[in-house]
């Protein structure tokens, strides 16, 4: 029995509310159970120096957690004077995951920055950030297309992410914090709309896993991301 009472292959309740900020070109609040992330997308007519003059666009991301996103207050990283290693790793993951679904030639020489701010954390914050980040990106690109600033749609396919793991000896989909903190195996799966894998992060957190178990987790991830992509489509059409 999972702590939440969910079936092994059951996602947490997912909702995506769009247009939640008035200034960003694209924004949404994604809720995956008790994990809530605010995602905003900002369009800028500039690119990083290393691709300037190439005609290619760029999508990047920043990630952060509010001090009381967790059960005890975390110190703001700004007061520490630098980002922590976990934050840097997650925002790089979000950026490269979203870029995997972008035709950078079609985007043109401009940058879209996706900011993911965790309001409340209960496991799977990076996966919620990627999934919600794509929605914010989609909405921002829609504005570019409506204005005629891009000729063809730069977003090739949706990108979604979900966590899976081995909890109490069983493969489960979409871990919340009680499961994540005790999982023997923990994995994050980032999947392209056509079913191709963008990235898989898997580690043994206290128990090794077999090839069969990995296949079970992959099957669960495909099911979960298909549901998330349906939610993304519903939120952006």
TrEMBL record:
- All copies of the Exoribonuclease phosphorolytic domain together span 10-140, 157-224
Q: What is this protein called?
A: Ribonuclease PH
Q: Which InterPro entries match?
A: ExoRNase_PH_dom1 (IPR001247), ExoRNase_PH_dom2 (IPR015847), ExoRNase_PH_dom2_sf (IPR036345), PNPase/RNase_PH_dom_sf (IPR027408), Ribosomal_Su5_D2-typ_SF (IPR020568), RNase_PH (IPR050080), RNase_PH_bac-type (IPR002381), RNase_PH_CS (IPR018336)
Q: Which Pfam families does the protein's record reference?
A: RNase_PH (PF01138), RNase_PH_C (PF03725)
HAMAP family in the record = RNase_PH
Class in the EC hierarchy, top level: transferase
Per UniProt, phosphate binds at: 86, 124-126
């Amino acid at each position: 029995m999972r702590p939440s009472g969910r079936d092994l292959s059951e996602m947490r309740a997912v909702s995506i509310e769009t247009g939640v900020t008035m200034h960003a070109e694209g924004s949404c609040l994604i809720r995956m159970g008790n994990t809530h992330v605010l995602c905003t997308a900002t369009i800028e007519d500039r690119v990083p120096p290393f691709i300037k003059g190439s005609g290619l666009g760029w999508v990047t991301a920043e990630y952060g957690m509010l001090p009381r996103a967790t059960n005890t207050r975390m110190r703001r990283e700004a007061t520490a004077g630098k980002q922590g290693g976990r934050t840097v790793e997650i925002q790089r993951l979000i950026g490269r995951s979203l870029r995997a679904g972008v035709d950078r030639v079609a985007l043109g020489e401009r940058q879209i920055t996706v900011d993911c701010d965790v309001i409340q954390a209960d496991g799977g914050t990076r996966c919620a950030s990627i999934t919600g980040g794509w929605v914010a990106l989609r909405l921002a690109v829609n504005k570019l297309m409506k204005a005629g600033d891009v000729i063809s749609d730069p977003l090739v396919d949706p990108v979604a992410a979900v966590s899976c793991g081995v909890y109490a000896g069983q493969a489960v989909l979409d871990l919340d914090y009680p499961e994540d903190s005790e999982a023997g195996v923990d994995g994050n799966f980032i999947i392209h709309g056509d079913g191709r894998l963008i990235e898989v992060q898997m580690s043994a957190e206290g128990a090794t896993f077999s090839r069969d178990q990995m296949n079970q987790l992959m099957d669960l991830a495909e099911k979960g991301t298909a549901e998330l992509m349906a939610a993304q489509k519903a939120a952006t059409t």
